[in-house]
Amino acid sequence: MGVLQTQNLTVRFGGHVAVNAVSCLFELGTLTAIVGPNGAGKTTYFNLISGQLPASEGRVLLDDQELTGLSASARTRAGLGRAFQLTNLFPNLTVLENVRLAVQATEEGAHLRGLNLWSIWQDHAKLTQQAQDILVQVAMMPQAHATVASLPHGDQRKLEVALLMALKPSVYMFDEPTAGMSQDEAPVILNLIRQLKSDKTKTILLVEHKMDVVRELADRIVVLHNGQLVADGEPTEVMAMKVVQEAYLGVKPSAAQAANVAHAKKGV
After folding, report:
1. Is the pTM of this model over 0.85?
2. pLDDT, tens digit, for every residue of 26-53?
3. C-alpha to C-alpha distance for 174 and 190, rounded to whole angstroms
């Protein structure tokens, strides 16, 4: 299904509370952008949800299934997918081989586990075709036979999305998916996210600093500041809030309002 929620999710590092009792429900078929200034706790919150960090307090649930005590890999099998978890899965294998292994890891490919795929040509060909179909979607067929370790940064980011798509999670988590990508490369990733968003059986969480991307893609914005949830709502509503203008935009409300008016006049 894909309904994700956190209940009073908290993590402490010594005396510092990095994420402070964040409760949030992420609905099926929606894309939620999680924003905030540097050090707000966005990536730490992601790490708590995906299992990269253990929570000091609170819970993580997916479709009412308790994920809080599960490892990152167990959460992935439960349907929670985060792109960077799959980076350099097998750096010395080819792009196609990496995606084919991810396809095999799904329930659809589970019946092949423990068998010699190379000796069962029909099944091997089916897995290969599914992997190739995914590579076409992410515009990486020209790199299909390149090793992962040889790929430039932009192609590695695209491969992360390809591997995530192959696993067919119910929840997609993207942490600044276009970071470090060129202007020519970034639209491919954004188009993929748009495509995933059109599937109303999926739930998408997006950490992103580029507000033009947030305004276009997000159905909802959640704002973190000093580890706390300070705003939650529709993009236009949230960006007009005083607490967001001061904490996220880093300007006084009057200046922020003027900036918003100028932005609107430009038709951006």
Report:
1. no
2. 999 999 999 988 889 999 999 999 999 9
3. 11
